[in-house]
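Data card: per-record layout.
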Amino acid sequence: MSSSPRVDVDGVSVSPDHFINGERVASACTFEDRSPLDWTWKLADVARGGALEADLAVGAALAAFPAWSALSTSERGAYLERLATLIDRDVERIAHVECLDMAMLEESLRLRVIARGARNFRAYAQLARDYQARRWSSNGTENTVLRMPAGPTIVITPWNAPFMLSTWKCAPALAAGNTVVLKPAEWSPLSCSLLMDLVSEAAFPPGVVNVVQGLGEEVGTALVNDPRVRRISFTGSPETGRVIGEAAAKNLVPFTAELGGKGPFIVFADADLDAAAQKAAVMYDDGGQVCLAGTRLLVEESVRERFVELFEAATKRHQLGDSRDPATTVSPLIHPEHLARVEGFVERARANGDTVVFGGHVEREGGLWYRPTLIEPRSNDSEVVQREVFGPVLTLQTFTDEDDAVRLANSTRYGLSAIVYTSSGPRALRLGERLRAGTIWVNCFLVRDLTAPFGGTGISGIGREGGDYALDFYSDLKTLQIKEGTTHG
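The structure for this 489-residue chain is written out next.
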């Protein structure tokens, strides 16, 4: 299969093809990739892979694995650090393409998100080098825990922040000595194609990093069912996570999944209400398409009126518009299908008798913008409370005391994140103990330490990423026991 000509995406040259064994590979079929900023704007016809491309990519990763895994952590780290330097160089062009492809705010992509990709590669290169094997003596033996590279790894990423999330998974897999096949979401594949250009420029050996594009039910299914695969990492919906989990179980492949959230945003009466309201309004950024967002506002009853007043004022300062414009704070939704999904949640809430406090409609005819929306549900069992909307739709509920707040916060099947606003240190510690969530922020949001574990409880996911937790996942651990007194040298 020969490669296709590169396409011009608003001044940036992008390959629409797969990247397999160090080469660009076309497919017999393609799929259209359109910009959420203007759905009439076709960015590219992208190679649509299937079982053939999946087989080629996994075969390439398998063939490259022995030599790559045999390198020292320092040797592998040098490749990762070269790649990080190239990402730093190309932040602006990657940010521009990703903005056009999935509509995240370009300023945010340029200043924060894409650069995080470079940080991921540098961090894992260093963590792998710094690993200190656990050693101890027992039962007359000297014991050492060692890491072994696991083998070909499948990485499947979502359509929101595709570049950063791809690096978040690929970096530890590569640092651990695994080879990778990356499958980006079909709604936003182009920035991952740019990443492969940089992988090539950084002179990674052929087959160490591969990309196959296409639909989940076609090429994704083929990848996760391949018995040669030894690790799978997925970010997406619980429904797809269950399907991938079944495939992983069939082949006894370790599997991590981050599957979204329905985070509580808890505001106590002793909080800085203005700061809490300002931060709550940030949950509408990027069209609410952020899994970590605190979308369930839980406010102490005594300050409900004041908080809602402040929150509505903060929300009115949002600007819906072109994500390339620095003045824009709320981007369009990714796809007409997703817009229809968000609209469906709001219309069913209305029919259920839930109160739409503000918003609740499309911003402009023919566009993908949806007004920031606040809904006061009839009960905690309302669908809009219990299911992830993944759009600019928040709910408002009140609580009477700390126990009531915890009860509401823990009342969904999700458990990815939680946000708490309080001036009480002891309360912050108590809530930290009692809330069921993988990450809990107190008086802040989206502060990330790359060495901390990241993941969810309940249907928000399985396993943990971040720091040594990720490197352990991408490795097979073994214990070496040597009888004391064995001659060394």
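Known properties of this structure: Residues 263-442 form a domain with the Aldehyde Dehydrogenase; Chain A, domain 2 fold (CATH 3.40.309.10). The chain has two domains: 7-259+456-479, 263-442.

See the next section for split statistics.
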